[in-house]
Every structure is written in C-alpha cells, then in structure tokens.
Amino acid sequence: MTKPALTALARSLPASVPFVGPEAAERANGKPFIARLGANENTFGPSPRAIAAMQKAASEVWMYADPESHDLRIALAVHHGVAPENIMVGEGIDTLLGVLVRLYVGQNDPVVTSDGAYPTFNYHVAGFGGVLHKVPYLDDHEDPASLIAKAREVGAKLIYIANPDNPMGTWHNADVIDQMIADVPDGSLLVLDEAYIEMAPAGTAPAMQIDNPNLIRMRTFSKAHGMAGARVGYAIGAAEVIDAFNKVRNHFGMGRISQAGALAALADHDWLAHIQTQIAQARDRITQIAADNGLTALPSATNFVAIDCGQDGNFARRVLAALIAQGIFVRMPFVAPQDRCIRISCGTPAEMDRFAEALPKALDTMS
Amino acid sequence: MTKPALTALARSLPASVPFVGPEAAERANGKPFIARLGANENTFGPSPRAIAAMQKAASEVWMYADPESHDLRIALAVHHGVAPENIMVGEGIDTLLGVLVRLYVGQNDPVVTSDGAYPTFNYHVAGFGGVLHKVPYLDDHEDPASLIAKAREVGAKLIYIANPDNPMGTWHNADVIDQMIADVPDGSLLVLDEAYIEMAPAGTAPAMQIDNPNLIRMRTFSKAHGMAGARVGYAIGAAEVIDAFNKVRNHFGMGRISQAGALAALADHDWLAHIQTQIAQARDRITQIAADNGLTALPSATNFVAIDCGQDGNFARRVLAALIAQGIFVRMPFVAPQDRCIRISCGTPAEMDRFAEALPKALDTMS
C-alpha cells in the first residue's frame, strides 16, 4: 500500500518550531520555572474587566464566535480612527502573518527581513516556498534603509520590520518609519509589526496612512493587553489589502471568549496605563540589575530588555543556560552579534527579585 | 506606485465565506434570533466543570498556551487508547483540515468529496489550488463505494467523508467505514470527519487502525462537548501523518482557556451522557414536530435533524426564509436533491417549542 505523498514543498520542509514553549522545558526539568520571563508575556495580566468578560463568555462558548468579529472590529476602527474595512481580526499576529504570506508569497518569491528578526515570520515564508533575504541589524536596531535597499535589489514581495523591535527592544521614531514607508519599492508590501507599540514612547507609531496599499500594520492583545493565551491580533491596512484575507482565512478561527476579552480590554484605558507604568518600572529594574552585575542593558521600548553580557554568543548562551537551570525562563537573540545579549521580559517585583538573585549566580558559574 | 501583487492562485480566488454567521443576519434584521438552531451548536452548553476550568484559566491568559497541547494530547491519547504521537490538537477541525490540505494538495491535485458535503473542506481545497471531484449522495447518505471509485479514477490525494454526515445527519455502521478504509487506493489519504460521532449509536465508529498511514480522523469539542466558540479540534492518525503537521502548523495557535476547558470537558463523562440524552430527546421532538406538520424527518446520528419538506429546493428555501423571518436561525443543504430538506439543530425544550410554533406558520405562507 503506497502512502499518501506530501506536496513537493511540504516534503522539503523540516518539522520545525519557531519557539519551543517553556512547558516543554518544565517537563524536561521535572519542575516549573520560578519566573516566566522568556516569551515577553505580560505577567501583570489582563484587565480585570477583560477577565470578567471572558468568565462571563465561558458559559456562552457553545456558540461559534461571530466570524466577522464585528463588534471588536468596530471598536478597533473607532480606536484607530479608521473604518471597519481597514481592520482584520485574527488568531494572533502569527496567524495573520501566515495568511499574509500565503496571499503574497509563492514558490521562490523574494522576501526581505532582518537577520535575527521574528522567526515565526521566517517560518511562514519558508512554509510557502518563499526565499528570505536578510540584512544585518545596525547598532542593534533594525535598519530601514538597508531593508529598503535589499527589497529594491531583489524585488521583494514583502518587507518585514518590527517597530519596536523584538528581540532587541530598540525602536525608531515615527519619522524614520514614515520615510521607510515612503521608500517602499513598487510592488512591495511593507509589513510593520507593532506588537509592542503600546509600550513605546509617544512618537514611535507613524500616523495611519490607511489608503496606502503598500503598507500593512500588525497589532496584538498578547503584549500590553496581557492576553497572549487568548490569541487575538489584528491587521490594519487599506481596504483592498484587508479584504484579500477573506479569500483564504479561517473565518471561524476566532474564539468567542477571546473576542469578548479583547473588547473589554480595549475599553479599559486605566488598566493599560497601569500596565505601562508597571512595565516602565520593570524595565528600569532590569537595567539596574544588569548594572549591579557589571552588564549593560539596552534601551527598550517594549516589555522586555536585552542585556549585553559583554562577550560573545557562546558566553551569553552559557549565562542563559545557568539562569534556566535556576528556574528562570529567559530567551536570547539567535544571531551574532545580537546573541551577545540575553532577553529578559518585564515581570512583577517578586519575579524581578528572583532574577536579581539568579543573575549573579549565573555569572559566577562563568569563571 | 505599483500595488503589491497577490500570488496567481490568490488572485484567482474569490473573497468567499463557507458560512455566513448568524450574527450577520441578526445585524441585518435589527434583532436577535429567538432560537439559534442553524449551526449545529450544542445549546445545552459545555460541562459545568469545563466552564469552571475556563473561568479559572481566564486570569492566567497572559501566558501563551503550551504549543504542544501536552496535557490535552495525553488525555486524548488515553481516551482513545493510542499514543500522544497519534494526536494533533488544533484550533477546530476547520484549521486542521486547512493544514492537512496544505500538506497534501498542490496546484491541480485531485480531491474527492460528496456533492453537498462540508463546504469548508472544499474552501480549503480551492484555496490551495486543488481540483474537487464530487460524487452524489446515495439515498441521502454519503456513498463510500462511489467515493472510492472516483478516488481511484482521478488519483485523489485526499478523500473526504463525514460519518455521521453533515448536513443530512445520516450515517454508516462501522463495518461499512472499515470496508471503505480497506478500499482506499494507493497513495490516497482518507479524511474521516467524525465531528458528530459522540452522538451516534454504538457501532458507528470503526476501531482505531492507528498505524494506517492512509487514514486520518477528525474529532472536535465543538459539538457534543458544547465548546464551538473555544476552537478545539484534534486529528487522530499514524504518527508520521500527525508529525507532518509540525512542518507548517501555527504552533502557538491554540488558546490557553480552550485547552483547559477541553481537558475538563473530556473528563466529565456524566455531562456527556446527559448531553447525549438531551440530544436524543430533542431529535425525537424535531421528528415529532415534522410529523405534526405532515413532513418527514430523516433519521439522525447527530445533534441535528434534516426535515424533508416534500418538494424541491425552491420550496425548502422558502420554508427556511419563513422560519428565519420568525427569528428561527436554521440552515439547509446546498445541493439537490438534498436541498428539499431544512436542517434543524437540537435545542432546549423551550427552543423546540419556538420551532414548533414557527414551522406551521412558515408552511402556511407557502400556499
């Protein structure tokens, strides 16, 4: 009996995972982490109003969610001063990126990103047969001019940039991004991932250019809104770009509880302000802990801080391993020279205390 | 400025939706439905233990879900007497079908299904450029022999069958499905959609043939478990077939609240038994209501009943419209001659009363 054959493209792909979850490490270690600071989750949690809305929705979960995410889309449109036709809600930015790549990237189509930027985007590009062209970071920042130049050189279908950046936490002001948008080559679509934008300084997000068909922006409830496990992201773009999602998206993919939670979270401005304060304090604390250990923290516009361990990637990987061995879940950049850093998510004061205790011990094991 | 170009495949696809949600009709009508009986949702709701688990998980939703769905996968493996490597959890059967089609169906690859079977599967096949070959229903049942013959004729990559069937509610006994599995042609993969299996008579589900690489089965928490809005489905298959999902799936697509709810629902056998009883009673009630109006209900192994309106599709569509006008959300088969029926989901006694009141009025408008 002949087995069914995968497509040629699927055969060529490895079984891979952009990120291994912390639960897998916990199972391997036989004990839970004492601080979960590796996935840029928001340990301060979602708005109490969002929690209440999700708890209420739990008993209504026998119903499919509205496939149009109508109420949430309306609220997001009002929030951003655009039309509902400019918003596509999906099961997290990962899902939206996957659909976007599927729509625009065929076999051997060129795509441009930074070397060391978000691996899940790269996973989707590979998964649809695209060819990734990577440009290096410049002084630990994504480099808009190089991204644009490379896109022009290779005729990129998509150009990916995160602002603020993950994994470095660095950012560009709106005027730099505006210039990048203006420079997008003919036929390219700029994917501006703003997952961390709510935690960046005022003046980081460019104004909406909502009728620009060469730009799509990605936002999420996973970071500032503290709802990573609810899977709610959204894309903002020109109506024609947004409508293309309806050709292939999984209309009934959104969770009903998640929609209810996101709607409540969006309305709770006080909680978001509270979170922004907590995160700013945690960033300062991480910076201080780094300094106390003779290390340098990079400035961050996100809910994490990259700490320069002062040597090469091998050294930082050993620091990382020594932290994980102490029950501190952290991750780090993949690519040199950014891999001289470890990346610490903002946590509660108690979690920051545990990190402060673990870091010098980790460094002690290096000598 | 040149706009970014969709792939040739994406350009060829219409912006379409397999099912319009009831919320869209409610918005158009300016009022909510008084009975939601159109999407085969389980109005009896999820297990109270599942609701409690989801409510507890709501405050932990700042964490991403375990991308391996480890605990749920273990529980499902135990439940089915297979290994965890034989289970893939995903965001509903729709998502799993999409990934499966992506893995196996390339441009112009042939796929076989029944004419009038689940449209979301067809949507995925079209979305990846596959070519659908459809065989007719036989006496309102899917026709395994014809499906197999057609698959052999066209060299199908995938063969889709739902048992019990949607939209007709009819079913085949396990021996018929076992024969179909045995007859799967070389190189074909049989997709056995068992979304409604928990509501079918004993003897409907064939035994696991877990090492058979030409078979994959789909199950869900959306129907008997009453968790449609949580988006939890799973595939059961040979380890090599299941592992292929890891090449392209969205690892962090599952919701954390959903995982917790599904785990609790699976353990609550008493609630499932209660639901099975409620659904059997509702099926009988729908059958009786049909008879009271001079119509014939088809036997059903699901949580819905197809009612033969006794004339053609145009007649049934008018009955459907007259029910919807009275606030009863129902749907119907798409294809003749099955479209002589309307499809009524099982509901609470109060919802059944509303249907019983509305149906004769709907039929009155026909004369």
From TrEMBL, chains A, B:
Q: Which UniProt keywords apply?
A: Aminotransferase, Pyridoxal phosphate, Transferase
Q: Aminotransferase class I/classII large domain location, by residue?
A: 36-359
One of the record's GO molecular function terms: transaminase activity
The family database entries (SUPFAM superfamilies) matched by this protein are listed as: PLP-dependent transferases
Asked if the record carries the keyword Transferase, the reply is yes
Q: Which domain of life is it from?
A: Bacteria
- Report the InterPro entries cross-referenced here: Aminotransferase_I/II_large (IPR004839), HistidinolP_aminotransfase (IPR050106), PyrdxlP-dep_Trfase (IPR015424), PyrdxlP-dep_Trfase_major (IPR015421), PyrdxlP-dep_Trfase_small (IPR015422)
The pathway this protein participates in, as annotated, is: Amino-acid biosynthesis
| Family matches, as NCBIfam families | PRK08153.1 (NF006014)
Give the family this protein belongs to, as stated in its UniProt record: Belongs to the class-II pyridoxal-phosphate-dependent aminotransferase family. Histidinol-phosphate aminotransferase subfamily.
The protein depicted here goes by the name: Histidinol-phosphate aminotransferase
Provenance organism: Yoonia tamlensis
UniProt lineage: Bacteria, Pseudomonadati, Pseudomonadota, Alphaproteobacteria, Rhodobacterales
